[in-house]
Amino acid sequence: MHATGVRIDKPRLRQLQTKIDSRLSTIDEELEILADAEGADWKVNFRSWQQVAKLLYDVLKLPILHPKGKRSTDVEALEPLRHHHLIVDKLLEKRKLDKLKGTYVETLLTKTDQYDILRARFNNCAVETGRLSSSGPNFQNVPVRTLPGTPQFVVECIGEVRKCFLPPPGWVWTRFDYSAVEFRIMVILGNDEASIQAINDGIDVHLETACEWNPQWGGYDRALERKIAKDKEIGVKRDFTKNVVYGQGYGQQLPSLLEYAQANGIALTKSQGQAIWSAVMGKRPGLQRYVTMAKQEALANGLARTYFGRQAIYPELKHGYGAKKAHALRSAVNQPVQGSSADIMKIAMARIGERKRDYGMEALACMMVHDEGDFIAPEDEVEKLSGIIVEEATSVVDWKLKLEVEVNTGASWGACK
């Protein structure tokens, strides 16, 4: 993949850079007007966290939600405050655009060679979970999905960045990613028969689980699935339920999920949150069973294993104390799921590579990003490559539930549909 590289559309990137600069200037002007209107008696420097904190917590009297009472102004602290004041929305958009410009746009413009080819270094053993990582640049940092509530302009810019990744002329970008592979791993490791059956039946398990705490929907059916695109409330509550499901599977606690709810405009008391937490636990018992088993092995043996038997050692579980031991235990609970996902992805990519070599195909792997594999292929090979991808990626394991992949093709990474 390093040798293959990726062609970058630098003229399009420069146009995007100009577009972002223009929007940032507009946001700065809007922030000044809003701050003046709220009674700020000084010209606020919105790049100074101290001045931003003074505006938010002293002038606007916004609640301090940091668990230790810190007057934080980072993105994580601002997300739950989005619905309190328009200034927070503007600040978040500004922060996200600054990051998009500095981390992605400017980096991509400077990292290409004389032929506009970007050649990242791929590292097999740099990440604890076993995922393939990259550096120079880190492709894992290029945004793939956006969180609910992300400003539309930011969403469009993220899409533009990905459209700047091109195949050679006459070739097609081909990508695949797994559908809910980590959830599938959780229910297999936790032997959750009901969830396994639901997945095999094609049920939207997160929407079905959301019905447990939304009786006004009248229960789960296919008609409810079709309402998600039109009814924002259903979509938001489904996504929140999905986060609760994954949070339980990764051993998180209720407070972190309540913060997510608040950040997405879901008003929940602690007792309501606990009721939802209990409803999810009752519907998906395998998640808690998996967490319990993972903790038991980690504490007994000081390690965690993936489905394939690959081990990660955590010395802090035997010799650490306090926060270090707690962090190691959380990592050990995550490792079997995320590590198994990484193993599945690597095995799939290796098998796809073997198959296309057997057929003498010109198609080349060019990137791996999280649970996604990316190829470039001549137009006349795309159909055959897509078939190979589906066959090999879905047959990596022989489980009681099906692995599913989605294959998309397009004129660029961002244009894949």
Could you characterize the architecture of this molecule?
The strands form four sheets. This protein has a four-stranded antiparallel sheet, covered by helices on one side. Strands 2-1-5 form a three-stranded antiparallel sheet. The chain has helices at 10-37, 49-59, 75-78, 86-111, 152-163, 181-189, 193-200, 205-210, 222-227, 232-249, 254-263, 270-283, 285-301, 316-319, 322-358, 382-393; strands at 6-8, 117-118, 121-123, 133-135, 165-166, 171-178, 303-305, 311-313, 364-369, 372-378, 405-410. It is built from 16 helices and eleven strands. By secondary structure, the chain is α+β, with helices and mostly antiparallel strands. Helix 10 (232-249) crosses helix 12 and helix 12 packs across helix 13 (285-301). Strand 7 and strand 8 (311-313) form a beta hairpin. The radius of gyration is 23 Å and the shape is globular.
State the order of secondary-structure elements, H for helix, E for strand.
EHHHHEEEHEEHHHHHHHHEEHHEEHE
- Mean pLDDT metric: 89
The number of distinct β-strands equals: 11
Helix content: 40-55%
Distance between the termini: 22 Å
**Low-confidence sequence ranges:** none
Percent of residues in β-strands: 5-15%
Shape: globular
Q: Specify the number of helices.
A: 16
Radius of gyration: 23 Å
Major beta sheet summary: 4 strands, antiparallel
Structural class: alpha+beta
Strand order of the largest sheet: 9-10-6-11
